[in-house]
């Protein structure tokens, strides 16, 4: 019977394998390029044409070979990981991956990404099985497959990033960035130090202010900026592109270069976060400030709680602390509290601190703009109408309006009378519904200041989030050494920033090649060097291949 025979041929492993490989190739191409998703089946169909023409999987002169696993299984799996990260976040940041593995990913809110990862895993398993069947049943593929493995390894950006970081270990001069680092020191404090309110708006970059592309989504933040100082051109350098990295850059004046091999227990949880440098909290606590951090997500995720507790903050509150205090404890999302609830708790904390003598500082981290679609609060839904669950501009508008509403409520209670207010995005957004529009041109972070003594103005500077740290200090009236703190330069001064002097490309290149600044950040986490017996040390000191290797001030004699 011909019909059953034809159906049997269509479901034959040969055609199933070719189809799976073709669909995976189509998905990879459409994910990594700007081709529309409808191009996926077209690419798969194009792939099937040579498969049928050359009879892949069913050669005429079949040569049986012992069963073996293809060389390219691991390279393909690594490419699958890269595509998953690219599809999830838009930009693959290896530093972020390494940091989160070490700092901890407990209580994260990426439930939707878990389901996506499951789908990716199943797809990758089908792809690897299909390729294995093809290699085992077609000697032509068996002969060429090792070369395919080499090509896949050589072309994977994921491995390229790893090898660049590894090259930093043997670089000749790995301390240029560290030499630019200025330890933050307060030389003089104002007679009446102002309070500080620092609002991080998750992923709400200033790029959204372009009304031609994004309409009025950013309008409420523009309205806030009309009463303060707005900076344009605060770009994102490497190692500042995720929440903890953005907060550390703007509070410590340094990119967050993960501990990596400096951490003696590798991927066991970190007990300290950047213990080798002083940050905003350290300096303010020394000046008598009472400091509080409030965030909707868990403080256990990515070491947030550890960072703030170890850097001068008295009160650190996250999901695990605030959710039980909600009128409706079920009013939470995957990550934690919605922003309307978080702002209510933040207002309560400001009232509490303001009732006591002495200056205070409050840091708040929102969540409404979190990729890929955001978490708009119920108050926004009541105001804006139903959320479609996809449009990030809805969530951007929600985040901006809630921030404006919160500031108006705090101002009405007199809590901002002697308070410097900083509004900043923690980092540029990752892949969202408006991704193609966002990457059409240069992107920059939100950064604006309001408060006593701060002019109403709009300025453009080539800067990065490390420049936020010294700018905050000077906006609060503190005098700092050379207008610098960490790698940052106060934008209130005329001093050039690192990007203005050396370009963002040059700074990023240095970060990929150097280790000294990384060692400074994580000073104390590296394993203590073992001291050799005195006699053995004397023998070792006598044999040095190069005078540069000597540790003393006088050059060693070449033996």
From TrEMBL:
Domain Sulfatase N-terminal residue range list: 194-477
Keyword Repeat: no
Molecular function GO labels: hydrolase activity; transferase activity
Major localization class: membrane
Protein name: Sulfatase-like hydrolase/transferase
Organism: Billgrantia kenyensis
Gene Ontology annotations for the cellular component aspect, listed alphabetically: plasma membrane
Record field: transmembrane: 15-32, 38-56, 76-101, 113-135, 147-163
Localisation per UniProt entry: Cell membrane
